[in-house]
Design a protein that fits this description.
alpha+beta; globular
């Protein structure tokens, strides 16, 4: 039986290889390693991190969206190494409309190993079951082919293209909009 999620306690999820958990200050070094990699942040709306303070500020944002009940971001901890290798979670949570947007990132050294497929499946299951979401959205730079392949693998459908939707790194960028509905499961 699934328990309905409330924002009282940050949930922990376990998959075969990973623990998805709340961020702690001791994760700042791993998060700095993740977000200082130019290939990881290529399609993200910020420049590579330069200091541990950047990582602490990011984790502060994770706490803020949780406290405001607008999202939650899990740290992806490898069970064997206990290293944080990425993050995954929801933002733009709209309880009234049973909708949220999924986001994720991963150390480039872990790409192509099925990590995000395993993690995202668990996060989607949590969203549809515990959060009782009807729709989970994803917005992706059309050039981010790996992310688009992942979304298709997870059963997302492209809804459209938001032309020049955001201004990032000195230029306007399009965002491809994908979604998965509860009824798609």
């Amino acid at each position: 039986m699934n328990t309905l999620f409330t924002f009282d306690t940050f949930p922990q999820i376990e998959t075969e290889r990973f623990v998805l958990r709340a961020a702690t200050d001791s994760d700042s070094g791993d998060l700095l390693a993740l977000y200082s990699d130019e290939t990881v942040v290529e399609y993200m709306p910020f420049t590579p991190f330069e200091s541990e303070q950047d990582a602490l500020d990011e984790m502060s944002w994770y706490k803020k969206i949780f406290n405001q009940q607008t999202g939650l971001r899990w740290m992806i901890e490898d069970k064997q190494s206990h290293q944080v290798i990425g993050t995954c979670g929801y933002l733009e949570y709209e309880e009234q409309h049973h909708r949220a947007e999924i986001g994720y990132d991963l150390l480039s050294s872990c790409w192509g190993k099925g990590v995000m497929t395993e993690v995202a499946r668990a996060v989607l299951e949590f969203g549809f079951n515990q959060m009782q979401l009807n729709k989970i959205e994803a917005k992706v730079d059309p050039g981010n082919e790996a992310s688009i392949l992942l979304l298709h693998k997870l059963g997302f459908q492209q809804e459209g293209l938001l032309r020049q939707h955001e201004f990032e790194k000195g230029r306007y960028v399009d965002l491809a909009v994908f979604s998965k509905l509860q009824s798609d499961n």
